[in-house]
Amino acid sequence: xxxxxxxxxxxxxxxxxxxxxxxxxxxxTSVWAPGKSSKxxxxxxxxxxxxxxxxxxxxxxxxxQHELVELKLRRVLRPYRxxxxxxxxxxxxVTYVEKEAFINELPDLxxxxxxxxxxxxxxxxxxxx
Length: 129
Description:
Layout: H1 7-22, E1 29-32, E2 41-44, E3 49-52, H2 57-118
Parallel strand pairs: 1-3
Antiparallel strand pairs: 2-3
């Protein structure tokens, strides 16, 4: 008999998937894959998948609960993530404009420095007194 069909494995997955449905994650799937990774669990949003790797069933439930809370928090924290990304975008645009302005002024700046070095080394009036 394949491991997937073992009663304990199927029951835990069924229960996890029932909980996902019950708390509003329709279309999401939870898989219990004991020992398949060194992680305890992970969420793959683009696949709408929660994978639990703990071997012990009670620890697997703890990890499932942890991942479920993280999923719920993602929705809560999304506005902050969007705001931060927009702020970063604005700062990058401002920085780009300032950098381009500096680069455009750089030849004149270098020319002024070069021109200043080629003049006589006299000290201007009033300097150094």
